[in-house]
């Protein structure tokens, strides 16, 4: 179980690449610098912060001519209860992790959309007693982009489902995620896929 000081580092989004790298196998500060494109001083400082609170440990020291090389490792599994964080509520705890990622997703979407038009906004309309917001430009909602072949989706939908159908939909979404993962190519561009499914209306 993580301590408050460990949790503060384990949950920092900007440290996630470093944590992932050190979870794979023991690495030196020089390895970290090369992998994350940092100076040796920056890499040593970041690894040192992790070691100081017990997130990273020295797994071994390799002898060589001159100074020996320390190899650092981060354990591959951590439980971080929200009670050891600075967040006052469980909702705040989730949002502290989801929020930065949603900010980045919004930025990626804006970059893709600007390639089609320089000016964007939101179209508000009422359908079936519910309001609907759609991204578009002065010409109308950008359905040709979001419903066409452009690899971009920004959809939040409200559904009324029985419990059996809600469970069925979740199974379908999990299968969809599995199929999507099978399409991956190591050297292909990065895409972000986010699926959230909760009980309740966010309208």
How many domain units? 2
Shape: elongated
Mean pLDDT: 93
| Low-confidence segments | none
The largest sheet has its strands arranged as 3-4-5
Protein name: ArsR family transcriptional regulator
InterPro entries: WH-like_DNA-bd_sf (IPR036388), WH_DNA-bd_sf (IPR036390)
What does this 3D model show about the protein?
The chain is α+β, with helices and mostly antiparallel strands and 203 residues long. The chain has 2 domains: 4-83, Winged helix-like DNA-binding domain superfamily/Winged helix DNA-binding domain (Arc Repressor Mutant, subunit A); 88-182, no CATH class. 42% of the residues lie in helices and 14% in strands. It contains 7 helices and 5 strands; from the N terminus they run ααααββαβββαα. The strands form 2 sheets. A 3-stranded antiparallel sheet has the order 3-4-5, with no helix packed on it. α3 packs across α4 (40-52). It is elongated and about 75 Å long.
Ordered list of secondary-structure elements with their pairings:
Elements: H1 4-10, H2 16-24, H3 29-36, H4 40-52, E1 57-62, E2 69-73, H5 90-114, E3 121-127, E4 130-137, E5 140-141, H6 143-146, H7 163-182
Antiparallel strand pairs: 1-2, 3-4, 4-5
Short description:
The chain has 203 residues and is an alpha+beta fold. The chain has helices at 4-10, 16-24, 29-36, 40-52, 90-114, 143-146, 163-182; strands spanning 57-62, 69-73, 121-127, 130-137, 140-141.
């Amino acid at each position: 179980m993580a301590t408050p000081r460990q949790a503060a580092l384990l949950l920092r989004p900007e440290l996630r690449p470093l944590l992932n790298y050190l979870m794979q196998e023991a690495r030196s500060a020089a390895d970290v610098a090369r992998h994350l494109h940092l100076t040796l001083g920056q890499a040593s400082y970041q690894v040192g912060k992790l070691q100081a609170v017990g997130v990273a440990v020295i797994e071994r020291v390799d002898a060589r001519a001159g100074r020996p090389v320390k190899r650092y490792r981060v354990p591959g599994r951590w439980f971080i209860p929200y009670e050891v964080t600075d967040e006052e509520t469980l909702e705040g705890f989730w949002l502290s992790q989801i929020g930065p990622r949603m900010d980045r997703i919004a930025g990626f979407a804006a970059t893709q959309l600007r390639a089609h038009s320089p000016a964007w906004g939101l179209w508000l309309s009422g359908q079936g007693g519910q309001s609907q917001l759609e991204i578009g430009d002065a010409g109308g909602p950008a359905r040709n982009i979001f419903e066409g072949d452009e690899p971009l989706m920004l959809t939040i939908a409200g559904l009324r489902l029985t419990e059996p159908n809600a469970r069925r939909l979740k199974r379908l979404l999990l299968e969809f995620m599995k199929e999507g993962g099978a399409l991956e190519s190591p050297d292909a561009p990065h895409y972000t896929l986010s699926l959230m499914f909760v009980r309740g209306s966010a309208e």
